[in-house]
Design goal:
Radius of gyration: 18 Å
CATH class: Mainly Beta
CATH architecture: Sandwich
Number of domains: 1
Structural class: mainly beta
Strand content: over 45%
CATH topology: Jelly Rolls
Length: 205
């Protein structure tokens, strides 16, 4: 099993090639992280599209995904987050099934510090019998420039709440983006179960 949390390679101006893309206007380089779960109900942010152990969590949940830095770095700007979720009506009549997703960006050293958060919700009026409704949610979280020392952790916290029929919702966190996990048909219409977080690192740090 990979170490938990994953240790991210050094981030510095000399390692700029490790960034996935750039925002030159803001002088930041973006690195993509994927929330993943491992056996023993442990959670990390990883940089490779590996298979998660389960790949999703059914029902309401509050999950913390961490990555630890080996060297000092700064983050600043807009964090982009994609979170897939699905609702399933297993009954023989129509059901109203809603949800709320709140994502927090946090720094964890000796204590936990909130850097920003965003929330999105969908209150489906009615889901047909034995049907799935899937959504890919997109959130933007603006973070002020924040310094991380070696050993500090970046934490992405995901709070998933059902506004009705809370046992019939699920959230995906499979870097491999599988469509065949959980109840058959859950993730197919969502385009897979991959969550993604794009973090802006200061280039001239």
């Amino acid at each position: 099993m990979p170490p938990h949390p994953q240790v991210f390679p050094p981030l510095s101006e000399g390692a700029i090639a490790s960034y996935d893309y750039y925002d030159f206007a803001s002088s930041v380089g973006y690195k993509t992280f994927y929330p993943a779960d491992f056996s023993g109900a442990t959670y990390s942010l990883v940089t490779e599209t590996i298979y998660s152990h389960a790949g999703y969590t059914a029902g309401e949940c509050d999950l913390d995904f961490d990555v630890e830095f080996k060297r000092a770095c700064d983050i600043k700007g807009d964090v982009w987050v994609n979170v897939p979720c699905v609702r399933f009506n297993a009954t023989g009549s129509g059901l109203t099934i809603g949800y709320t997703i709140q994502v927090y960006i946090r720094k964890y050293s000796t204590t936990e510090t909130d850097l920003g958060n965003a929330i999105t919700a969908d209150n489906q009026t009615e889901i047909s019998p034995t049907s799935f409704v899937s959504n890919m949610n997109a959130l933007k979280i603006t973070v002020a420039q924040t310094h991380f020392n070696a050993g500090d952790k970046l934490r992405v916290s995901l709070v998933f709440v059902g506004t009705a029929e809370a046992t019939r919702i699920a959230v995906g966190h499979d870097p491999k983006n599988r469509t065949d996990i959980g109840t058959t048909g859950w993730w197919t219409t969502a385009g897979g179960a991959q969550s993604k977080v794009d973090i802006p690192f200061v280039l001239n740090n």
